[in-house]
Design a protein that fits this description.
5-stranded mixed sheet, Glutaredoxin, Immunoglobulin-like
Amino acid sequence: MKQIVYVFLLSLLLVSCGFRSGHFKMEGRLLHINQGELYVYSPDGAIEGMDTIKIQGGRFTYEIPSQHNATLVIVFPNYSTQPIFTEPGEAVEVKADASHLKEMEVEGTDDNELMTKFRKQVASVSPPEELKYAIQFVKDHPESAVSVYLTEKYLIQTEGADYKKAAELVNLMAKEQPKNGTLARLKLQLKGLKSANVGTSLPNFSAKDLNGKTITGAELKDGTVIINVWASWSYESMDIQRTLNEMAQQGQAAVIGICLDATTREARDVIKRDNISFPNICDGQMMESKLIKTLGLNTVPDNIVVKNGKIAERRVNASTFRQRAYNLN
């Protein structure tokens, strides 16, 4: 009888503390946003697709099943993004001012508190200094999930990416996190980038678009072609996708999309909704797609600019695309 009472009291204590085994909970308080919506997605599979978080009276609550550590990315109304690091059975509190999101505070777990310190450290520095701080952070905390996120953001998923430095940091982190699946993916990704780097010829490939037409690398020998990787759950990739659609419709560039959604239905829905005019490929293999591995495109968002059969640029963002005009000649 005493054992039953003990278990009951322990359960009440856990519930009162907001703890729920096998779940991760996030509660937030936002200044200067009273009502509205946030969007959230996961680059490493914590959730499928994109979820909506309702803001009521400047507060929000979001809870998901959680069996392993993962990363969530919150998309704010101004389209800026911030990561949250999940842990099974844990809860965090988010405090942010909508006008100063770079100084967002997240309390409750070590990784989220480390990320908060990094945000504050780089809130007012220049981009080159921010990169230096990110590299130093990884060297100081190779055991942290934050380091994996920062390496991908600052050294891989960016214009002027430094794949050599990224590989060095990935190897450093792998010694401390030998079972981290994201690091294993980054290793494969960086290996693929060696054969599809700027200045090299576009690797040979053959794939069918959603209309059944075969597209090959041999067809992309003349003019400028932009190959863009996107998914319905990644706002950043959708922003690039819409920008490229405008360029394609204005005759500024030829574009080919590669969708990493799990089903062709999801891809077709987005293409129809946004009136996407250029061909899109979706094989349903997501990150395991042979095509994106061949092209060294193992992330979302991602893209390569091909000029006369050679890779001229990688990972160009939407803002840069909007400032340029790519000629087809």
